Amino acid sequence: MPSGQTSFQDLQTPALLLDEARMTRNIERLAERAKILGVTLRPHLKTAKSAEIARRLSGDVTGPITVSTLAEAEAFHAAGHTDILYAVGIAPQKLTRVQVLREQGCDLVVILDSPAQARAVAEAGVPALIEIDSDGHRGGLLPDEPALVEIGRILHAVDNLRGVMTHAGESYTVRGDAAHAEFAERERSAAVKAADELRDAGLFCPVVSVGSTPTAHAARDLSGVTELRAGVYMFFDLVMAGIEVCGLDDIALTVLTTVIGHQPAKGWVMIDAGWMAMSCDRSTAGQNVDQGYGLICDADGRLMPDLIVSSANQEHGIVSLRPGAEGPLPNIPLGTHLRILPNHACATAAQHDRYHVLPAESGPMKTWRRFGGW
Amino acid sequence: MPSGQTSFQDLQTPALLLDEARMTRNIERLAERAKILGVTLRPHLKTAKSAEIARRLSGDVTGPITVSTLAEAEAFHAAGHTDILYAVGIAPQKLTRVQVLREQGCDLVVILDSPAQARAVAEAGVPALIEIDSDGHRGGLLPDEPALVEIGRILHAVDNLRGVMTHAGESYTVRGDAAHAEFAERERSAAVKAADELRDAGLFCPVVSVGSTPTAHAARDLSGVTELRAGVYMFFDLVMAGIEVCGLDDIALTVLTTVIGHQPAKGWVMIDAGWMAMSCDRSTAGQNVDQGYGLICDADGRLMPDLIVSSANQEHGIVSLRPGAEGPLPNIPLGTHLRILPNHACATAAQHDRYHVLPAESGPMKTWRRFGGW
User: Fold this and answer.
1) Burial (CB count within 10 angstroms: exposed 0-12, middle 13-18, buried 19+), residue B103
2) Nearest CA-CA distance, residue A135 and chain B, Å
3) What is the pLDDT of residue B1?
4) CATH 2.60.120.560 describes domain A39-234
5) A 19-58 → B contacts, CB under 8 A
């Protein structure tokens, strides 16, 4: 608990708490890895959506970043960032907003995987990375598809081919460092192979960009890669803990909630954090340990063994012992503050418009705003 | 498509569209039912979170409403509403904000189900309804629990007993009018029985409040009930269609999205609406027909048979034919606008800060702001 003037005990609940010391430790961990691997880190800000956090990711400067919406690009450019990758396949209708940011001095780069997109982007004079599919997860071309070089030529002709990028979203579905290292190698080899195909065709391909939080922490070797992307690593969450990328005590985000009732016959404690505060994300349901809508800690952040948010309505959560756990349910009186570790930090944070920051050093709490929308 | 000056074709996607004609039809349907049943309708604004919509629910006046957060109570009071039920069990820490609103002339009433809450509320001089459990869904006392009269006495002693309320959340899990009518009768009989228990003990119990969207539409008789609550009825959604409370063409909310890519070998169309735009809600997964993250319509709102959002990442959706559907996948080029019917209107709307309103009459689109937070 912070020793400053403003305690989170005074906050209206539910509220999103950020443990700054844990976040700093997570940031330093991946920064160190990127240094050892010899690549530039380009953090994905879709999770944080905060200018204050963005600066902390790159040594208090406005470094290279990745975003998932043009609203993020605009907000981070306004906060001083000038090197931004918009890592969602570009729709032609969005190029006007991209051009406006570029004219304002922001080196905003888009991604694409089709000749139709490449023609629209070339006409708009916007630089792009070609998206490569390294794991069958989502978008992108296989490195040996003929469209790769066709797209490369369209962009190269107007000096807008910046390189290639890939993201192994499937790495979230496997557990343990060795499995993640395999996906990291898939990312590396697919991206490097695609870059080689382009270069063999006489095209310029300076950027080879890879990454996801699991692969970024597990990669053994990134030869040929120029930059590494990851997003949720700054906060971590129960999904990342479930696949052993972090421990539970690395998770920097919690939702502060208050006990609003009991159903003793059912073993339920009612809280004021439902899916509106936690999100509807149930990603741990498919993992070894289903954490419901989140794992319960006391107000000081100490885990309360086997207590989970087993059910959620819009503004109600039901806390109970996880199935099979030995009771009894601890006595948690009306008005008690609890903290909930979230399944998926990106989704939970998106339900809130600010972080209440528990400072690393003793001192008052801070409030950092989050961006939203598109 | 609206014929006005501003077409939704000019909107940045993803964007939340509201079909005003459908909403009006849905509003009139339940208003008519409440009239026939002889009860006051107290709409739940947790779904809409919009002052413009609130006025339309009660004949362009600021009528009685229900809210799920104090932030909603504050926003709606600022918009002129003075008769508000805060229908989430009260935490003692929240009573200061309740008192401030009451001092400003807002008749804000809270709910509770324990003597501890009743003592805090009585001390704060705030009126309350006692929550009754009619279906084992969430909070509330059984009508014959001795605590009911104990709580009643605490509140009655300071003239703060307003009555009883119940909500059959379990009615969402059964299908068809007859099944919903049974839950409506459970709500009615539990609430009326509780009111009678209080009255038999010599306590004053003017309000008997019941409701949920399925039961409100199915109730045959509400003798002894004074008011009816419902929330999602103004928009409806795939969950409500799945339990036959509405048809697909009653659903007033859609998310406008743009095609950003294809994976032809997999039968995937990539769109720019992921779970950030749709929410992570997968409530149709437990119904007869799993609608994925939503059902696809063309830009004019016509259903595209068997096309669903089968998978979603933060800002990516994958559209494909539903499992078992006969192909082929229609040709949907890059840049095409589609509209998505949501699983759960409350959750999807909460991901957006405004409604883009397709007007009932021809004319330009309107934009209505939504409230958020706590």
Assistant:
1) exposed
2) 13
3) 37
4) no
5) 46
